[in-house]
Amino acid sequence: MDAVSGRKNVVFLVLDSLRTDRVSAYNEDVDFTEHIQAVADRSVVFENATTQAPWTLPSHASMFTGLYPWDHGTTHARSYATGDHETFISALSDAGYTTSAITPNVWITPHKGMTDGFDTVENFLAADNSLSRRIAKLSTKLYDKLGTLPKRILGRQIDRTFQLFGIDDSCKSEETVGAVEQYLAERNPEENFFCYVNLMEPHEPYHPPQEYVDKHGVTDESAVPHRQKDMFTKDDIDFGELEKMYDASVDYTDDLVGRITDALDTNDLSEDTVVVLLSDHGQALGEDGVFGHQFTVAESVIHPVLMVAHPDIEPGREPRPIELRALHDLIPYYAGIESTRPEVFQETVRGGYEFPENFTGYIPSAEWDDYYRQQRYVTRDGTKVVKSTGEDGNSRYEATDLDTGETVPVPADLKQAVDEIGEVDVGDGSESGPDADEAVEERLEALGYR
């Protein structure tokens, strides 16, 4: 990792749910990510990154704080950040950076406690105001005080209620990119900036413009699952059509990335700006009958895209294992506010998720035990061990040789490592943390949650 000199702007571009095998920088057979490839050509491409959780909120919380989910406590079981942990965004702000978040992702909003430290937030939620946030905090306290069974019942009823309404499921990508273009054009040229951007197109539901659908040969959109619940309710799912629709969405995302990098060039920012392009997690597209990312720690989900284009750092490939939570230490260094290069590579990487309280409203009772589980995973020297714990407290272990994909005996040292991963104290509801008001609930449902 080369030395950096002077302060740089930072664009932190998260492409939600983007798989590595759909990006030419990781798979030379891909021919529809030329704009991301242009970023990769001037980047350090991290070949072996691991996310600390297979969905947005805890993954981002780990990136922002440098902590594991079981330490920062933002999990499937508590879907908000408490604000008690320092983030690299606050560090940049304290160093004089202007900080902005431009995201249609409702997990990264003031309602979820994830935007502390940002000077400005554009989340395209009309209900984003002080009153809605106070109401949201109260609803969270009340919800947290419920027991597990009442939460499940309430989740199912909310899900059924939302089915009665037609809800806009747009990912608001055009609005997001337009806001980024405006931000870059109107920024104060005397100030360094950090701009967080989230593009949702690789995330279900999939509605790329028709030209991309046609380009990738999708012939039967009705057979494509658009939400996690479709796995339990649709009888005619075609995973081949799903893959083509996903590719169409990634293709569209790539062109959106091109607009953002063009805006950097247009505003003469490319030589003074670090571009961190990543996914917070990947996506399962039917492997072993699994779709989505809420209930799986498959390799296609936990190994995200990560590349860093820095004006002072020579491009290349980095094969050493790295956790996404290392970005908490790397970003201040890349920005130039920390002069010491952090030690970010490690022999063993870890991650996991809690019992998925927020996603149980549509799980059929017959399949409950397959999905309502706590997962932990560790990887070392090409071997991955997953510990899966059921509601009864019983755990099962599985080890995989990542080079061959074959199941192997569980190494004793990795079993010990996965057993040592901590438990999460989700509290008793006494902490004040925001949850979704009506507008946020609608966006969550549009993205397939609840």
The radius of gyration is: 21 Å
- Total strand count, please? 17
Task: Supply the number of helical segments.
Answer: 15
| Class by SSE composition | alpha/beta
Shape: globular
Distance between the termini: 42 Å
Share of residues in helices = 25-40%
CATH superfamily: Alkaline Phosphatase, subunit A
- The average pLDDT is 87
Give your account of this protein's structure:
With 450 residues, the chain is α/β, with parallel strands linked by helices. The chain has a single domain, classed as Alkaline Phosphatase, subunit A (3-Layer(aba) Sandwich). The protein has 15 helices and 17 strands. This is Arylsulfatase A. Pfam families: Sulfatase (PF00884).
Quick structural summary:
The protein has helices at 34-40, 56-65, 69-72, 88-94, 130-144, 148-163, 173-186, 210-215, 230-233, 239-266, 299-302, 327-335, 368-371, 412-419, 438-446; strands at 9-15, 44-46, 49-50, 98-102, 120-122, 193-199, 273-278, 284-285, 291-292, 306-309, 316-318, 322-323, 348-353, 374-380, 383-389, 395-401, 407-408.
